């Protein structure tokens, strides 16, 4: 699975460019984080990538072929942000809906679809919730349901819009760990909009910084650093490597 | 789930059979069975009871079932695609259009019942087509535009109908228009059953096939697309199928409200929101409901009570009960 955007440009009003000539390539088994300030265009970028918005110029290629949109392709799944929902469906039914791209146009889900949904729910750890109504779930549980739904569809690219947004930091860790595990064990690529440079550091291979006047895309190791945080967020920060303390992690601190 | 559906079917069969021998003119159950077996064995010699059963009651009960099943399935589907449990199949103006068609036919061609069927059916379909075309002009927000157009088109045809009532002959035409608009199964015949079953059964079959995808449409357009369902195309199919059903129902039985809105809400409490089960279950419960209500309509008093009145009188308290029962302590 290879997804490419070439010379992608997009503007809402024809005057201010939100996306200016973006070129990037995402291979299989890759996790990409998208970082940027509020309003800079992270969600716009995702929507252009998916094809919900049409690029003003530039193209999107999936596995080498030019495509208008990838939102409805079976290689791609979308995990929305889990707000409070008024959907009265049971968890099992919602996860089952992730199989739709694989079900022929006038058919119903079959045994195999129920099977795959069950496996997806078990992998994410929510099978015990399968008969609960989605309206009764917490934000974290609902986010897991959306993730299970994306996995049930057996897609190779999962796009997540701020999955940790409404979660407390324990649930944030749980969902990020799950994304990392699933990606590494199944070779699924993920593109994640996130507000947290720390989360980006902990799981992503590549990072995309989006700014008003430009962007930068590269290996997280190389480009997620204090200079770029200053360029794209206007904030001074320090990234500390805790190896010296025997902890194999990096942490991110904002300075006044 | 399947147990509840099976139970529903059994109740429907029992209630339908009971409806054959109950009524202002009572017939023993034994005689109903006799009438059936006579027909099967081709024994001639029509008794009066036999005529009542075959020419009046059976077509009437069949029509009850067709209309009750169809309107409930249409209502459930609309509630799914419009993402709102208060929606009824009338929301795009089909009943107002068909009502106007019937009023027009009664005014201009009072003798012809065939023309009434054709004109009311056609204008019912036409009114939804107009709503849809108006809504298409708006690029964004398809669901809201559809609802708005439907309300506008519905009001427009209601106004035209009022105008017809104004100029109609007050001795004969006006009463027949008024009575027709209140909904009734008098004059049920096997001809009407065959005629109505074409659009109604076609619509039901289409909605049955689409019921899984209606679940997905109810999540919203963007999410539906992300799950591989083309929302505009499927919405059009659901609207076409529901409109076929509702026009078919209105042309033979007048305007019967509440069923399309009420029955899905009651059934959702019993069987859940998954349309794979909700749509068939609503159909069955709707059919049972209409058979029972029509039984009351024709048995309670000497003259028949128009069924639209009964569904409204019974529907309102039933809806209040369904809506509030969770919070009643």
| Global structural class of chain A | alpha/beta
Q: Give a quick account of the main beta sheet of chain A: strands, pairing sense, barrel closure.
A: 6 strands, mixed
CATH names the topology of the largest domain in chain A as: Rossmann fold
Total helices of chain B: the number is 13
Order of helices and strands of chain B: HHHHHHHHHHHHH
Bin the strand percentage of chain B.
under 5%
N/C terminus separation of chain A: 43 Å
- The CATH superfamily of chain B turns out to be ABC transporter involved in vitamin B12 uptake, BtuC
Count of extended strands of chain A: 12
List the helices and strands and how they pair.
The complex is a heterodimer of chains A (256) and B (329).
Chain A: E1 3-10, E2 19-26, E3 31-35, H1 42-50, E4 57-62, E5 65-67, E6 76-79, H2 91-96, H3 111-124, H4 139-152, E7 157-161, H5 169-186, E8 189-193, H6 197-203, E9 206-210, E10 215-219, H7 220-223, H8 226-233, E11 237-241, E12 250-254
Parallel strand pairs in A: 3-8, 3-9, 6-7, 7-8
Antiparallel strand pairs in A: 1-2, 1-4, 4-5, 9-10, 11-12
Chain B: H1 2-21, H2 29-40, H3 48-81, H4 94-108, H5 113-137, H6 142-167, H7 173-182, H8 190-217, H9 221-226, H10 231-253, H11 259-271, H12 275-299, H13 307-324
Helix pairs in contact in B: 1-3, 1-12, 2-3, 3-8, 3-10, 3-11, 3-12, 4-5, 4-6, 4-7, 4-10, 5-6, 5-10, 8-10, 8-12, 11-12, 11-13
